[in-house]
Amino acid sequence: MTTTTQIRLAARPVGEPQDTDFEFVTTDLPELADGQVLLRTIYLSLDPYMRGRMSAAKSYAEPVEVGDVMVGGTVCEVMESRSPERAVGDIVLAYTGWQTYAVAGARHTRKLDPQAAPISTALGVLGMPGFTAYAGLLAIGRPQPGETVAVAAATGPVGSAVGQIAKVKGARAVGIAGRPDKCRALIEEFGFDAAVDHRSESFREELAETTPDGVDVYFENVAGPVGAAVTRRLNKFARVPVCGLVANYNATQAPEGPDQLPAYLGAILTLSLTVRGFIQSEFVPTHHDDFLRDMAGWIADGSVRYREDVVDGLDNTLETFRGLLAGRNFGKSLVRVGTDPTIA
Amino acid sequence: MTTTTQIRLAARPVGEPQDTDFEFVTTDLPELADGQVLLRTIYLSLDPYMRGRMSAAKSYAEPVEVGDVMVGGTVCEVMESRSPERAVGDIVLAYTGWQTYAVAGARHTRKLDPQAAPISTALGVLGMPGFTAYAGLLAIGRPQPGETVAVAAATGPVGSAVGQIAKVKGARAVGIAGRPDKCRALIEEFGFDAAVDHRSESFREELAETTPDGVDVYFENVAGPVGAAVTRRLNKFARVPVCGLVANYNATQAPEGPDQLPAYLGAILTLSLTVRGFIQSEFVPTHHDDFLRDMAGWIADGSVRYREDVVDGLDNTLETFRGLLAGRNFGKSLVRVGTDPTIA
């Protein structure tokens, strides 16, 4: 018998998730059935979309039920196998959530090659966040050489990839982040053309100065006041892939007025904007093979760099998740739940 | 010397345009130069976009300057010609605005064939409003057979064409209008599948009942509470061509809260919506020839019907325009400024 320690949703959070909204449970795992594997969690990915899964509100995926283990992408080691497709010791990408061990169908895992790339990247630049950036920017944003691409949360795994892919495509990349050290990293580490700190008192003026030709693609992943400021810089026929709205995720009611929707629709009309929401899964059939090939190449040739923010221990998951929603992370947020055997 | 009576913008309206925002001026027209024609206005088109032209705010076209004649599409008779391309007696489409006579370059007019269609239709179903419906619905909305298309201001020249073209393409058409007689006309005259009166106390329930499979295309030309109600009915991957926002045109400031923008962006994200503003001129190069051929055919075979709301006399222009913004017209709003020689 293997036991697993799980973080289960105990109540639906109102506003920022509290410790009392979750419970830690240690429980026995069932015996493996044919085709299943026993997985030990190495890395757990923390992503903003998880806030939506904690709520009962209609979203693009079913909510986590109260009493269930919180969902999430993981990189795991195969400890036992009753599938010919997976061997003990294999490192796999899985979706086993906030827990230390899990039983899963082998077919719901993807085997990773630790020689090709660090295994944690399967949750970041070579995983869902990287693909979100790739698909949203290229399929919806369609940046042209010489155009300006703006993105917020720009040191995050999605934002940093958006800016760097924009550069690969010949566009100008302007990143928005929430701390001076993040802004420095945008320029020095990720090669953005300009960086703006949205916590600066002169944010709007700095945004205008760093987008002298306006903005042709705004990759929207935060909304709120940052989104409003970028909207004022949009050019005619600009494209706005809407990937996330972190600024609103903890909101408990519609904010006080005035109502900004009429002005937003007015901008859509007068500028002939394209605003398009998307979930990366829509583009898997058409773009995922290209993504894996392109992104691996860009990492290899140095066009795309990435940064990870790794916290050790499942116990720290919730505090790390709150920090993610508040922008306290710096790079792709990961919890190292157990030892990474590929690191010497 | 020919004199013309003009309606000039005297002040930028605040809210609903007032009589004092305009002045009537009678003035001499200049002699014709080479290539010019003297035009007598027969029909003046009144369209919601004109409210935007009265304001100094950034829009998709330059504002009318205070002191200038209000702009607008017209159907005119050629009274004198110094162009080999136009003969006296020709009926032409022009853009000579709110006045009884005008001098224009012959090349800025398009000759109409009174035998092919009533000349007033060049300002409606076969003109800019019809093309707005055609291009926005087909290039952006892309209704598929069996899908549901919803449109408000549905007895207007754009809305009625949207619903009828949707039917031609095999979609279900649901029209929203503001009076019982308009709703009856949607069913009996324009062949919509369902009609809903947005002034009904049970509007939201009726909208839900008449869109049991949700809404796949919402042709947005009003916004406001009607737009908000339809947004709640949108299906995943729905398309929203944004063509106009009549509900907001007279607004003098952002409405009181709560702020509806976060919820709207939330819908865009969770439903993977495409919201796309447009001005019909964008699609002239790619779609206008097809439009003229298709629409003439649909009128000829009875697939598309149209209704005009003709008011006589330039003196009545402003009151008619205020009625248009308030939804008091019923069909394409036209002012018959002078005698129509093609009507027996």
Label this structure with key terms.
homodimer; 344 residues; alpha/beta; Quinone Oxidoreductase, Chain A, domain 1; Rossmann fold; six-stranded parallel beta sheet; 15 strands
Oligomer status: homodimer
Number of domains of chain A: 2
Using the CA coordinates, give the radius of gyration of chain A: 20 Å
Q: What structural class results from the helix and strand content of chain A? A: alpha/beta
Biggest interface, which chains?
A: A-B, 42 and 41 residues
CATH superfamily of the largest domain in chain A: NAD(P)-binding Rossmann-like Domain
Tally of helical segments of chain A = 9
* Beta-strand percent range of chain A: 15-25%
Question: Uncertain segments of chain A of ≥5 residues (pLDDT<50)?
Answer: none
Q: List how many beta strands of chain A DSSP finds.
A: 15
Q: Would you tell me which CATH topology of the largest domain in chain A applies?
A: Rossmann fold
* H/E series of chain A: EEEHEEEEHEHEHEHEHEHEHEHE
